[in-house]
Amino acid sequence: MWQFEEPKYFYLLGIIPFLVLLFLINLYWKRKKQKQFGDLELIKKLSPEKSVFKPVLKLIVVALALAGIILALVNPKIGTKMETVKRQGVDIVFAVDISKSMLAEDIAPNRLEKSKQLVSQIINQLGSDRIGIVGYAGSAYPVLPITTDYSVAKMYLQSMNTDMVSSQGTALSEAIKMATSYFDDPQTSKLIVLISDGEDHGEGFEDAIEEAKEKRIKIMTIGVGTEKGGPIPLRYNGKIEGFKKDSKGETVVTKLYPETLKTIAKSADGGYVYGGNTKEVVEFVKNGLGNLEKTDFESQQIADFQSQYQWFLGIAFALLLLDVFLLERKTAWVKKLNLFNEKE
Predict the structure, then answer these.
(1) According to a count of CB atoms within 10 Å of the terminal CB, is the N or C end of the chain lower?
(2) DSSP 1-63
(3) Integer distance in angstroms from the first to the last C-alpha of the chain?
(4) Taking the chain (344 residues) in consecutive chunks of 10 residues, what is each chunk's mean pLDDT?
(5) Whole-number Cα distances in Å, 222 to 32, 151, 257, 271, 296
(6) Residue 197 to residue 116: CA distance in whole angstroms
(7) Can you give the pTM of this predicted structure?
């Protein structure tokens, strides 16, 4: 398995097509100037040793050398063995509200983006815990199963949007039930972190909470939004075209309903925190995790990654050295092959 220590340097590969473009422009300019000074066939006869192939070969060599240097900067690493690692941690499922009300901008940049920021910052503080992600609105949607790969989790988290679930509302019961189904190990400590504005929460979440309690799952809730509320913007090509209206033509104002979230947290032996201050939320969840019993579990992972940059650097220097000895005149044996049908 490969790892790239400095993937940010991959963008430098864009220099290579730019280099090819400069070569073609220079070639075109030379031919244009040659036509101004005389007949091209006559110029060829006056410089019989000039090779058509060599400049192209030199370009290829330089481009490959440059690619080798860039790959050396990226520093590819290869895992040489598998090893079993013992971890201590908790299984956590993040249930993120993706209903249309989460587009309200009463908390910057909007409720949904703020929710993503909170989850991302919580993940940054985790060590060996396993995590999963659920999205929900009028129904629940599985986003990512339980995993220890935090980078993949963040990628899936950032892709979440309000179009993932067609039915609208805030089905907290569905979210809790789906999050509960994620936990595959009865021995581990389990936690659901539910992020929502608590609006239009539907009915029947009490049964879902009871099911979670039977499986010894704690639920923490995070309220996102303000009790004053705000309108739901309707965007087209990134620009606000208006705001969502009800059947009477009046602008809908969506608000945070913390009481619902507090009730869920209290019933499931968890806790509630307002999501306005990221640092406070992270500390709250961190303290909650500290009170949970950590479970030992084993996982296999590729280890002992070794740097491979020296190979790419060596090849690059060898190619640059070769370029020094590549002259633009014809090589004797290549001249005999007459690859380009060049007339003497």
Answers:
(1) C
(2) -EEES-GGGGGGGGHHHHHHHHHHHHHHHHHHHHHHHS-HHHHHHH-TTB-SHHHHHHHHHHH
(3) 54
(4) 81 91 87 68 58 79 93 83 68 93 91 95 90 91 90 93 78 90 86 89 78 92 93 81 83 89 91 94 92 69 72 91 74 52 51
(5) 69, 23, 11, 9, 28
(6) 14
(7) 0.62
